[in-house]
Design a protein that fits this description.
Elements lengths: L2 H24 L4 H14 L5 E18 L19 E13 L3 E11 L12 H4 L7 E2 L4 E2 L10 E10 L3 E10 L9 E6 L5 E10 L2 E11 L5 E14 L2 E18 H8 L23 H8 L6 H14 L3 H7 L4 H9 L3 E5 L2 E5 L8 E4 L3 E7 L2 E4 L5 E11 L4 E13 L4 E9 L3 E2 L2 H7 L15 E16 L2 E14 L17 E13 L4 E5 L2 E6 L4 E8 L10 E14 L5 E15 L18 H5 L16 E11 L3 H5 L8 E10 L6 E9 L3 E10 L2 E11 L6
Antiparallel strand pairs: 1-2, 1-12, 2-3, 4-5, 6-7, 7-8, 8-9, 9-10, 10-11, 11-12, 13-14, 14-17, 15-16, 15-34, 16-18, 17-18, 18-19, 19-20, 20-22, 21-22, 22-23, 23-24, 24-27, 25-26, 27-28, 28-29, 29-30, 30-31, 31-32, 32-33, 33-34
Amino acid sequence: MSSVMYKRCLLFAVAWLLAASVALCAIPASADDALLACFLRKHARGECGVGELFGRMYVKQRVEASRKNLLLNAIPDMARFDRNIDSYVTELFYELYYTDYGIWELRRKSYNTSFKHGDGEIERAVDFLRMNPYDDCYMQGRIFSPLSSNYSKYYKYSSDTILVGGDSVLYKLSFEGRFKNIRLLDGGWVLLDDSCNIREMSLRGWDEQSRFDAIYIMNVREGGCSVVESVHVDIDYAFLGNRLDISTDAVFDYDYVLPVNRAAAFRGNKDRYNLTGSSNVVWDSTVVTNRRQYAGEHRSIPLDEAEALLLGDATALSGDSALVADNKNDKNWMWRLGDEMVSSHSYNWNGGGIRLSPLVNPAYVDYSSSRGLSYKLAMNVRSRLPGMREVKFKPQLGYNFKQDAVYWSVNGAFVYNPSRLGELSIALGEGNITYSSAALDRIKNVALDSLDFKNLNLNYFRNQYVELAHKCEIFNGFELLAGVNFHRRHLEGNADKLLDGHGFVLKKRYSQFAPHIRFNWQPGMYYYMDGGRKVNLGSRYPVFALDVEQGVNGVLGSNSVYTRSELDVQYKAATRGGNTLYMRFGAGGYFYTKDVYFVDYSFLKNNNLPVERSEELGGVFQLLDSEWYNAANKYVRANFTYESVYGSLQKLFPRVKLFQNEYIYYNVLFLSKLCPYMEVGYGVATPYLDMGLFISSQNAQLHKVGYKIAFSLFSDR
């Protein structure tokens, strides 16, 4: 082909492509796509959202129990039903504060209820009321919004036009999830005006044990932002024999509402990471002493005759002072004791208050093929003091059935400078059973193929500890912790003669006194000031931590000299569509050791008891035998967890709604004898159980296959 002919063909091809592209651009988009694109475009520019608001919320909730399983009265924080009563009424009074960065502050001022034995699930509907339609996620992050560009690919849309009186026109945008999944809405619609402001919205879906249908009535305020004026929610609740029809109505009264541009203009005059609102919110600190009287003065929705009768009868028995006297005379003391153990309790006074979490909670049960069955009792006590100061107290008691061992701890802290996160803390308890450094040489000299910790007859020591520390944020995102640790270790069992690897006679008791320092730094930390209290919200960057401990001889009988140093880096990378990658890298070791010491790392620990979800995703070795955590004086680790919203299991079973998240795990650890130890795993989270299957290898050889099951139904994780 001649060069002239080649150029003509190339020119013709380019012209044809240009014409085709123009023709494609000329094809009009569907009305559905155009309406959705218009809304998302305005949303992205912040032209219709709320930047900040503060006000009050009144909630009236009616519960009709068609079936009751009274055995569920023993479940933490669930409503306690009476055998002969099927109808219940509750009134709730809140103050609320919101900014468009997803900061919600909701404080219950008072409540009035006909439940006699604890309110429990009466606040179940609050997550439906704490709503900004322009957020990316609803219900505290559990449901993906169909009005967010991040999640619009998970929904199908259609549109219609509605005439409202005269010539007024509203546009109805309907949506439905592409999957039958608990994180998507089954369907609903949004009414938009000519400016793409939301006027009304309907959401339908499934939330754990219930189906819900919620209607939101909106109002356009000055500046063009839409706010929720009232909400009606119907919940069909069914769980293990409990069948409830819950009807909730809420009315909002705002002191002020700021559009996004006005709130952003104010923040532009401050530190870019400071997301504090444009005005100092003044919360009402008055303590309500008579709930019935307060309800009568602040009720926004009148009670009908049946509701008034229910609340009137109940209040006569459960007024603020009468309730205490009635309980004291209650002959069923076992009922009262059980109710106290599985309920949360709040007590308030002028300038302060205290909240107690349930003492018994099934969420703290898990089973692992490697660690066996374990259970713990945990209680969180938080007491507010004048000046935004706070006292925190967390006792824990746990038992591991496979190890036949009891573990306990008591952690307390006094937040004396909330603006700098200044905190004095104390921790004491009984930690993991370990062995001395004398065992390291014995382990080192045994080939991995023939290594069996049970046959080595190692001398194990119980560990009792006290840790004192002071923590303060030096500058934004950079925390410094300094303190001292004291450990007293006792020999587990009996031994006539204890020899270490060098022929020295070991003692049956050891004391360790060690100054301790830790640096935590997360650059780009976003925060806001709640009065004089600084609240960190997280960052887009990794968290860097350096932990150093120095054993000192001769203090309080200490006879162990060592330097322990560890570096830890954790990073959470969120991707579009709700998927997340968790990464953790770390290394540490014991240096400048002298005499006998005990390997006990801060960032590489054996979890004999159930841990929180954040710890689980942050890097846990599921199948690593507990003896290996103390088997080397140096280590290197890496952990990766990929959290997928709609993975393979959801695609295989597209109509199953239970799947919340799927997880892929990859963990690797380098120790003196394990080069490397690797784990791969797959897990799935449902509203009821978290399950995982794992496979591990040691030095490129298959080691074991195991699984883990943990309750999640009654957990805040």
